[in-house]
Amino acid sequence: MAKMLSDKGIDAIDVSSAAYDTFNYWLEPTTFDCGWRKYLAAEVKKVVDIPVIAANLIRSPKQAELQLEEGVQDFISLGRPLIADPQWANKVQSGNEDLVKRCVCCLYCFESMMENAYKYDNGHCSVNPFVGREGTSLNKNGNGRKALIIGAGAAGLTAAELLARRGFDVTVLEKEKEVGGQLNLAKKPPHKEKMNWVCTDLLSNINKLGVKLELGVTATKELIDTYNPEIVINATGGNAIFPKPYIEDNSCTVTEILNGTVKLENKKVAVIGSGMTGLETSELLVSQGNKVTIIEMSDKIAPGAWFQHLDDALPKLNAAGTVFMPGHKLLSVNEDSVTLERMSDGANINVDVDFVVLSLGVRPDTVLYDEIKNSSKYKVYNIGDSVKIGRIANATESAYQLAISID
To answer: What is the pLDDT of residues 319-331, one digit of tens each?
Structure first.
């Protein structure tokens, strides 16, 4: 068909792939490799004498240039990358490609568009809170006022960038040795490395703006006073829920699995909770040779999750022999088993396991905020997961709303 069209004299052909019934192969989730489908465009290019255009999940200028040099295609097409950063091409052309905010394929643009269309609202983007607000301009009245931000996750770094663009003198304190917050855990399951881009790209931008970043610093009320700030923004995130009583030597939260504190190999593992964090942690566990049973109180796995994420995760877990037990409530963790209540009839059952991983959600960390919120020395704000646990888009949105509202 491509050759026939070429012979008929059309000017160019734009090669895409898949359709609504093979959703993830045209609107890929995070786990798909950049350029995974470039071979399709390359095959078309072999039989036509006209320019070939293709998107090919291109996420960096380097990748785009390489695919041109390889003869895969003649023109670069960008879709979601221009939602994440409308200045993509301008930044590259001006030699500032390190400032490009890359699309991480989280699918929130499509998910939010589908949900918001029924409410007469637009879609949104996890890394670009200006989507749908392109006419918004930042008030440049910071005038060197000191803003101190506690926490270098997505919320804290977004607030740092926007306040710096407004002219504030911004310092960020982060207790860990690297930026990222909860995203340092999100990037750990197999093929989730793109999650690291969110804060890596924000870091490049705040460095360009002169924001001061201090890593390995635990903020206290006394330390904050030494900075003499006018504004303090608490972005301390949240902590995984670990309810008592559980047997601590054979139980942990997903955090300890993802950060490597607890390493399991060739074990029978029960994962309690089938939200996307539970499923992604299970992917990591099965990749390490464990046999996983996922226990979910709801009558279906990952209730409320966007269907594309499930279409991506469930086949991999099924292929690894994962057992799914929806409609079951955890009653107790025993030395070599868990006791469950079957929700349909109230019957108690035991499942033999070596280890239990709890994926019961995250609660906001407000310890510091509660200590400083009534300060008379500076204005205090709270954003991101330390207000309400959410996704990347919720973190960047809360930072945006605060940054534009500060007088």
So the answer is: 999 999 999 999 9
